[in-house]
């Protein structure tokens, strides 16, 4: 390869990296988590999180090759799957 081709390839790679960084900087980083971080919050495996993404039970945003999940979506998923306590369940029966 000639030096011109190598420099052109490097320039393209840098352009892609900076555009991905710009998109990520527009999102508040604290509002998004990676699949492994979501797995930690949900106390499950990263594979399970990826399966949820695949079934579209969790939304995902791609920036380059990286995936980001809104933290609010993870919290909502956990809340929707949480079993109420027996006391709450018994109060529902009485009312």
Tell me what you see in this structure.
With 95 residues, the chain is mainly alpha-helical. The chain has 5 helices and 3 strands. Helix 2 (35-42) packs across helix 3 (46-54). It is elongated, with a radius of gyration of 21 Å.
Q: Top keywords for this entry?
A:
single chain, mainly alpha, Arc Repressor Mutant, subunit A, 95 residues
Quick recap of the structure?
The chain has 95 residues and is mainly alpha-helical.
Taken together, the total number of domains comes to 1
- Give Rg in angstroms: 21 Å
Number of strands: 3
Walk across the major sheet and give the strand order: 1-3-2
CATH class: Mainly Alpha
- Summarize the main sheet: 3 strands, antiparallel
Q: Which architecture per CATH?
A: Orthogonal Bundle
Q: Span from first to last CA?
A: 78 Å
The SS-based structural class is: mainly alpha
């Amino acid at each position: 390869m000639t030096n011109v081709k190598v420099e052109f390839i490097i320039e393209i790679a840098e352009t892609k990296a900076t555009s991905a960084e710009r998109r990520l900087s527009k999102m508040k980083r604290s509002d998004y988590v990676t699949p492994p971080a979501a797995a930690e919050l949900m106390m499950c495996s990263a594979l399970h999180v990826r399966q949820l993404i695949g079934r579209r039970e969790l939304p995902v945003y791609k920036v380059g090759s990286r995936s980001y999940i809104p933290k609010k979506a993870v919290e909502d998923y956990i809340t929707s799957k949480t079993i109420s306590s027996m006391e709450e369940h018994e109060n529902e029966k009485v009312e």
